[in-house]
Amino acid sequence: MSPQQRTLHLNAFLMSTGHHEASWRLPESNPRASTDIRHYQNLAQIAERGTFDSIFFADSPVIFGDVGRRPAGKLEPTVLLTAIAAATEKIGLIATASTTYNDPFNLARRFASVDFVSGGRAGWNVVTTAGPEAARNFGIDDQPAHAARYERAAEFLEVAAKLWDSWEDDAVLADKEGGIWADSAKVRPINHVGKHFRVRGPLNVPRSPQGHPLIVQAGSSENGKGLAARYAEAVFTAQQTLEDAQAFYADLKARTVELGRTAESLKILPGIVPVIAPTQAEALRLERELDELIRPEYARAELANTLRVDPEDLPLDRQLPADLPDEDSIEGAKSRYTLIVELARREKLTVRQLIGRLGGGRGHLTFAGTPEQVADAIQLWFENGAADGFNIMPAVLPSGLETFVDQVVPVLRQRGLFRSEYTGSTLREHYGLERPANRFSAVGSLASAGA
Amino acid sequence: MSPQQRTLHLNAFLMSTGHHEASWRLPESNPRASTDIRHYQNLAQIAERGTFDSIFFADSPVIFGDVGRRPAGKLEPTVLLTAIAAATEKIGLIATASTTYNDPFNLARRFASVDFVSGGRAGWNVVTTAGPEAARNFGIDDQPAHAARYERAAEFLEVAAKLWDSWEDDAVLADKEGGIWADSAKVRPINHVGKHFRVRGPLNVPRSPQGHPLIVQAGSSENGKGLAARYAEAVFTAQQTLEDAQAFYADLKARTVELGRTAESLKILPGIVPVIAPTQAEALRLERELDELIRPEYARAELANTLRVDPEDLPLDRQLPADLPDEDSIEGAKSRYTLIVELARREKLTVRQLIGRLGGGRGHLTFAGTPEQVADAIQLWFENGAADGFNIMPAVLPSGLETFVDQVVPVLRQRGLFRSEYTGSTLREHYGLERPANRFSAVGSLASAGA
After folding, report:
1. pTM of the full predicted structure?
2. Which domains occur in chain A, in start order?
3. ipTM confidence
4. Longest pairwise C-alpha distance within chain B
5. Which residue, among B102, B113, B162, B208, would best test binding to A if mutated, counting the most A CBs under 10 Å from its CB?
6. Residues B2-47: pLDDT tens digits?
7. A-contacting residues of B 94-113, CB under 8 Å?
């Protein structure tokens, strides 16, 4: 497939006042935006004006760190995206939900319900939820081990897929004359019995417009890549250099093909924090001004927590200590851990400098420059085997998203890289992904070997 | 408190094409309404035009009986009500959720989120979910016993209330100058350790507009009444006669007062199925026509399941067998079981007649008559110690709700029994219920002994 035939995919990764941890302190920001539904509806409408494929919310069932630092409370994503669905028409809606701290029957139903009320725009970012802090909100003293969480995630996804297929697409007859509402032969128990779950089914909602919500994955550890290659249809990833992004892209596409899927059935979207200004110098100054609003004591405490060291062991004006734990011993967010340590070592950053880099995009790549420079960077990665699209993480919201939509999107459109209007109406259609066949229906079972 | 000073409360109990099981077969009905969000948004707007206090959806995480019989798939209620919130402004939104098959952290957060996006209109109908069928969707071979489910429900409610209070109302400082987003002293772990749950907290969302969502309860068993007297602020109940309703009302209010609450802090709303026509004869004919659309083999199978007998033991033209099990042995929906058996015995109904009665309102009272006659019945119960309001269960939707709003509500308003416009903007304000004080805050702890 030549670069010309491919279409760029853009997702807006939304987070209260923006991805920069100090964004809420800017005069323009609404510091109570995190619980204001109109703020989020406005962001989604901006992204929809920019014909983005989707918007996305990260999530974890716990508060990390100090609530003094930055907006800490979050609306539950399926509720939040449902309220946004009512204020938008086309844009896809991707909610994060944990397979470790949810139940497959309830969660499968919730995503099917969001898919119905949004007219086929639901996506699920599957996470396994790192950290003992979350576990303690669910009666568990310490988190399940990394591998065990991913094993449960895989079975969770199998159960969810079976439940979404437990009604055939044409099960509802609505035969008023004969008095038969649905064909009971096309609504089946799934009778799942596995290591982690026993679920009888069927689901208590018919098959939704997309069949299954779009499955998204964002972990880049070995376990994460394995799960993505098997189940994911879009992957969000943090990559700091073109070379790293190319290696990740090639590796994950190869793993996907090895499992009998096509390379195109999985879209890879690295995250970028665009800092846009009329000149590159102004963009860099904007970035510095934001970094100066970071209170380092909060940021250092979070860094210490991620690295599983004492904050006292991280003097602000020295580099990271040499004797950090190995990734293998980390049971939390493995790939994030490695990314941070490698970034600090590669660029010989002091703790203060590292905090500044992480404060902007928490490890994602910052592109600071003019609209053309940002578009150049996007095109470079897109055309050189590093990305199928990008996960846009504005440092400040709504202004950073508005600037991207008004200044970068037109450049991408002019270059023929990105759509000028929506051609489909479901999230799957935006990403160019097929509607999954039903594994239990007579026709579907022939066609859905890879579904 | 004299009858003149009290205000009637009205809740619209919504269910796809209506509460009559054959309603979907009518020419006017959309048989695919159960997954059509516009159908539900329209119903909510009709109820809001009638200044109803709230709308409500029942729910169970399982499909009961044969999907041929009637619309069987349901959208998950918190998702459904969030989509409705976006299409309405004032009306309260009550979702059913199970304490047996949910987790307190996730569910408390979900209701707080609905409360935020609706501007303080969320209510939670707390159910314990009867029946082994539901249990098997959650890896449990048989349902937990009735008493154990209610014990878990009580602890679940305690945990949820603590989580809703884990942020003080003024915890968010939004101090841009000082760089302090929230006061960490006002966001507390709850460190709950109980028989069923261990939850550290705090919740990951600030305290919501209503403090707590409105707590609703609908079980009328001994365990159900005990839970209601302690925690509920509104109770939905099925009562067939004025005398039974008066006895239930007096009993539940007395239990509530015994626990140190005021009688007014709990509102009791019996369910009624209004069948309205210009003359009583026409109303009765309308009712008969609907009953004739019931396919008895489906209805008999469900009745047999509720009574825990074989369908073969229920010949259509005979009365119920004499040797039915005692309520004490029923681990499912105890109060519903007793209501059905007493109705059949009191009125010496054949199985076919009983199916007709249950097909209309599943055990709730049917008022068939002119708008004035329906208003008379409502007034009689309201002014004679049987009800604080009613749970309106239209046999056919939307037409039955439209008729009630356009023809009965004006009569109730003329009589000074019901509001002509909303005076508050939250669900608690509609029901005349206080916003709960925060049990953990210095001021709140003095004021909230009963909260």
Report:
1. 0.92
2. 7-279+363-447 (3.20.20.30)
3. 0.92
4. 79
5. B113
6. 444 789 999 999 999 999 889 999 999 999 999 999 999 999 999 9
7. 101-103, 105-106, 109-110, 113
